[in-house]
Amino acid sequence: MSTGPRESTAGGTKKNEDFEQDCIEIKNKLKTIVDDARLRKIPERYKTQYHNALLGAHFGYLSVRALESACDADSKAEREAHYKESKNLSAKSYQLLKSSRSFFKNGG
User: Percent of the chain, pLDDT > 70?
Assistant: First the structure.
């Protein structure tokens, strides 16, 4: 995965040289996190927040897939639709993970 500064995809119209590899690595890491987390036993009082954290990671995964689809789309309308979907999923993911992080950071 590239360690340099983030680069713009220009609304899903361009890819940097490491884009595909970065997407694969991000999706694999998110999938591993979600798969491992599903196998854990969680105390009842944490289940809601834990579920939100898993959902946030899942939305992050879907956001990366939508961004890949935007970059591979043939038409401008299709590209814009996938890019918008990616941004919406990313925002949902961010909100869920942010609230879960603050919940667990403050001791639940």
Answer: 85
Contact 66, 84 (CB under 8 A): no
Task: Determine the Cα–Cα distance for residues 32 and 4; give it in Å rounded to an integer.
Answer: 24
- 3-class DSSP state of 66: helix
Q: What DSSP designation does 17 have?
A: T
Question: In the structure encoding, which two tokens stand for residue 85, read together?
Answer: 């979907």
Rounded to a whole number of angstroms, the CA Rg of the chain reads: 16
List Cβ neighbours of 42 (8 Å cut-off, separation of 6 or more): 50
Going by C-beta distance under 8 Å and a sequence separation of 6 or more, which residues neighbour residue 21? 1
**3-class state of residue 102 by DSSP:** helix
> pLDDT category, 61, cuts 50, 70, 90?
very high
